Amino acid sequence: MLRVEQLHSGYGSIEILKGVSLEVHEGEVVSLIGANGAGKSTALMTLSGILPLKSGKIFFKDEEISRISPHKIVSLGICQVPEGRRIFPGLTVLENLELGGFSLRKNPIKNGLETVFEYFPVLSDRKNQPGGTLSGGEQQMLAIGRALMGKPKLLMMDEPSLGLAPIIVEKIFKMIKKMSEDGLTLLLVEQNARMALAIAHRAYILETGQVNLEGEAARLLNDPRVRSAYLGE
C-alpha cells in the first residue's frame, strides 16, 4: 500500500532522514521505533506532505505522491493523528470531528460519526462539550476520531501514548488493535516500544535518521539489541 524509497528530509538545511526506505502492506500495523531525534515524527510529517522531501520517492497504491500537497494526500486516504493531539480546544467535540470529514459529503460524515462513537463512546457523551475541557485521554481519542472521520485507507499515528496515564494508554492501544482487526492499515510512531511491538505485524527501528533494524515485530521484541536499547532489559 505504502512504499518509501531512499527518503531524505529535514528542516531547512538540517537533514533528519538520511535515506529511509520502508513499506506498509494493506491490513498491517507497522511500527516506527526509535529514540528522541531519530526521525520518526519527521517521517510522518514528510509522508503527510507537510515537510517537503529533499530526495527519494513515496508511493501509495503504486501512485507516486512524493510532491503533492497535504490536502490531496488526505483525499487519497492518508490521515495523520499528530503528536500532542492538536485538537481545536474552543470547538466542541462534534465540531472537531466534523472538521475531520471536511472533504466528505454529509452522509459519509454521519456514518463516520457513528463509527467514531462506536470506538469511543465517551465522545458521544461529550459531543457538545468544548474539546479543551476534555481530559488528556479523551483529547487523544478525539484526535484519533477526527482522523477516522476522513475515512482513511492508511492511518498514521504519532506518539498516541504521549503524556497519558498507563490505564489510558492500555485503552488507546486496545482501540488501535481493534481498528486493525476491523481492517484498517496503520503506521504507528511510538516511544513505548514494548506496546508498539506487541500490536504490530512488522517494525522499523530508526537511529539518527536511518533504518537500523527491520522485520517481524515478534522477532524484534525478542532481539537482544532491541531489548537492551528500547525495553530497558
Protein described:
The protein has 10 helices and 10 strands. It has 233 residues and is of the alpha/beta class. It has one domain (25-50, 68-230): Rossmann fold (3-Layer(aba) Sandwich), CATH 3.40.50. Strands 6-7-8-3-9-10 form a 6-stranded mixed β-sheet, sandwiched between helices. It has a 4-stranded antiparallel β-sheet with strand order 2-1-4-5, covered by helices on one side. The radius of gyration is 17 Å and the shape is globular. The N and C termini lie far apart (34 Å).
Order of helices and strands: EEEHEEHEHHHHEHEHEEHH
Q: What's the structural domain tally?
A: 1
Structural class: alpha/beta
CATH architecture: 3-Layer(aba) Sandwich
Look at the structure and give the CATH class.
Alpha Beta
Radius of gyration: 17 Å
Gap from first CA to last CA: 34 Å
CATH fold annotation: Rossmann fold
What is the number of beta strands?
10
Quaternary structure: single chain
Question: What's the shape?
Answer: globular
If strands are numbered along the chain, what order do they take across the biggest sheet?
6-7-8-3-9-10
Q: Which ranges are low-confidence, i.e. pLDDT below 50, for 5 or more consecutive residues?
A: none
The number of helical elements comes to 10
Can you summarize this structure?
This protein has 233 residues and is α/β, with parallel strands linked by helices.
